[in-house]
Amino acid sequence: MSNKQKTYVRFELARRIEHIVMLLSFGALGITGIPQRYADSQISAFIVNLFGGIEMTREIHHVAAVIMMFGTMYHILIFGYKLFVKRQSMGMLPSFQDAKDAFQALKYNFGLTKERPQMGRYTFEEKVEYWAFVWGTILMGATGFMMWNPIATSKILPGELIPAAKAAHGLEAILAVLAIIIWHMYSVHVKMFNKSMFTGKMTEEEMLHEHPLELADIKAGLTERSADPKVLKKRQRIYFPIAGVLTIAMLSGIYGFINTEETAVTIVPERPEQLVSSYDPQTPTPQPTLAPTATPDAAAAPSELTWDAYVGPLFQTKCLMCHGELGGLSLASYEDTMAGGQSGEIVSAGDSANSLLITIQLPGDHLGQLSEEELNFVKEWVDAGAPQ
Ligand code: HEC
To answer: Per residue in 112-124, pLDDT tens?
Structure first.
């Protein structure tokens, strides 16, 4: 074991930076997104307040999403470079061997075999995770776009898809966060403390344990040799313009994502207090206010206790807004008043105790109420035979 400390490069610096960018944007998306999905919970309220309110939380969520879009764009361009310029094999493509490895791992975990599957550069677990991430990013991007740009979306697709997108976005978020916490963090950083994504390196022992086939290839000198620099140059001359066009297309895609519409990005400013109140207790309908007409001086004794001299003008100011031309009882004229209303005659001349005109005013709570003095004068008028 003389070369036990020998290390192998597993991830170049660019890969590691990419991982950190994804880690941070994913983390930011999760921590600002999940509280929006469970908005009713107290923990959510706490987290949202921590970020400075819902608007700020959404802002961070959107910024993190854009960072992830850039990360994805970068990944696609690098992928194209490796595929078309370096002509590297696509190590992440799933193969039949992966299914066999998975089955072998299952048997090993159940204690049915003593041999762990022997795997190469990417284990089947790593491939599953990678493709789950690819799928998750596509789904979150598509549903995120639909929520960010609902009007543009509903011009092309049925509007029902927007709430559906919201549900899918939230559910996939839970799935992704749980997968990262339970599967990724556990199997990569807890089960065995694999730091290669941060250090870039793996020891021979770790390689032997996790990627024995790759180690064997390296030892046998079977690692992919880079092509002749001249050939590389030629391929680059073709790839770079294509990549340039692709970059412009993707950048305008991101621009459109953010700027197509403002619907979902703006929060309507808070309305003034009294408009926001959802509960307005019922208040009694204010009684009709009277036009500033000369009110008969009630305290002063009327010159003559007749309809024309006192009762008529009094009713005009105190009763006619309800008992005028609206129908029902009319107190507009002497004749109308003597004719009565629904209950028949309201004035029994000479007998105020049996005149509804007086009795209805006695409890003091009629919608149009006479003062005590006024009522006494009207009462006197009835008892005097209700002279016109
Ligand atoms: C704000 C509206 C309003 C005003 C002002 C008003 N009333 Fe009435 N009055 C009503 C309503 C409504 C009724 C029917 C329901 C009831 O009987 O309480 C009514 C009923 C009456 C009746 C019984 C009619 C019937 O046929 O049953 C009398 C009598 C009467 N009012 C007298 C008066 C007098 C006298 C005044 C003026 C001092 C007056 N009211 C002012 C609303 C009003």
So the answer is: 888 888 887 788 8
